[in-house]
Structures are given as C-alpha cells and as structure tokens.
Amino acid sequence: MKDKIVENFFYWTKMIVLASVIVFLIRGFVFIPMKVDGNSMAKTLKQDDQLVYEKFSEIKRFDVIIFKQNDGATYIKRVIGMPGERIQYIDDELFVNEKIVDEEFLGQAKIKRSSNQYTTNFDTLDLLEKPTISEDAYFVLGDNRRLSKDSRSFGEVKKSEVIGKAVMVYYPIKHFKLIK
C-alpha cells in the first residue's frame, strides 16, 4: 500500500513538473502576454487590454504587430504597407500601388463626419522621401488614426524591429476576441 502511495506521488510530481515546463515554454516562446498602453489602436484594442502575441507566423497586410523602436519604446500598430509598395491615402481611401484597397477592420469609424477625414491624405513618396517601402520594412498605422503615433511620424518599421504578431485579447474577459 505504501509503495503505491509513493509511486503515485512520484508520478504526479513528474506530471506537474512536465506541465509547468510546457506552460513556461508556451508562455515564453509561443504565446507571449502583453498589456496595451494607449489608445492608438482603439476600437480594436483598448487601454489596459491584455493580449497574447506570437513570433512564428508570416506578417501580412492588416496584421497587428508589436515592435520596438530604436528609442526603446514598444508599439502596437496595424501593417498597412508591405515591402516594395507605395501607399497613399486620398480622401479616406487607401491606395496600394495606385489601386484602392478596402479596410474592413475600420468599420463605422471610417464614415466621414462632415469635412473631417479619418485618415489624412499622404503619400509614402512624401513621407519616406522615396516612392516605395524598403524591402526589409513595413508601413504601419494605428486604427485610431487621429491619435496615433505611427509610420506617418517615425517612418518605416524594419522587419528586425518586429517582436511579434498580436493574436488575441484575453483580459478583461468582456474584451476577449481574436485579433483580425
């Protein structure tokens, strides 16, 4: 009887240690938690939302990425322009290489209110002083375009500066969602 208790104890101890190691590896290398600081991504992400991001999948247009700038600041923004593309906003319309691209994720936020634009007019030719985004970089904007410090002010985001891609908001529970 005593041998069975000792055997069960060692079995459950091994299982707890194994589970702890797996959780540590997943949390540290696959899905990493992060707290949102700021309102530049509102309505998608709100101040103090807790999210997880991952480091292994390919970045595509409209993905929400986390990156660190040279000044040490960490940002969360949406990829609008990919390497080699020219980005323009004209009268609240996104043009990629002179073709209109719909931004479904903006929803009602984009609806014009009188003469106010949601996204001011710009062209990467003027902002970056070259026609297209570098081959090793992205052009990013916050979803809350009027209150966002983004590529319009600090330029391109180098691929080497990208920490990961936001996957889901998990806290507070009422904000739970997969990030699109």
TrEMBL record:
Belongs to the peptidase S26 family. One of its GO terms (molecular function) is signal peptidase activity. The chain crosses the membrane at residues 12-32. SUPFAM superfamilies: LexA/Signal peptidase. It is an enzyme of class 3 (hydrolase). This is Signal peptidase I. Pfam families: Peptidase_S26. It is found in: Cell membrane; Membrane. InterPro entries: LexA/Signal_pep-like_sf, Pept_S26A_signal_pept_1, Pept_S26A_signal_pept_1_CS, Pept_S26A_signal_pept_1_Lys-AS, Peptidase_S26. The keyword Protease applies. The active site is at S40, K77. Keywords: Hydrolase, Membrane, Protease, Transmembrane, Transmembrane helix. NCBIfam families: sigpep_I_bact. Gene3D superfamilies: Umud Fragment, subunit A. Residues 11-171 form the Peptidase S26 domain. It is a single-pass type II membrane protein. Its EC number is 3.4.21.89. It catalyses: Cleavage of hydrophobic, N-terminal signal or leader sequences from secreted and periplasmic proteins. One of its GO terms (cellular component) is plasma membrane. GO terms for biological process: signal peptide processing.
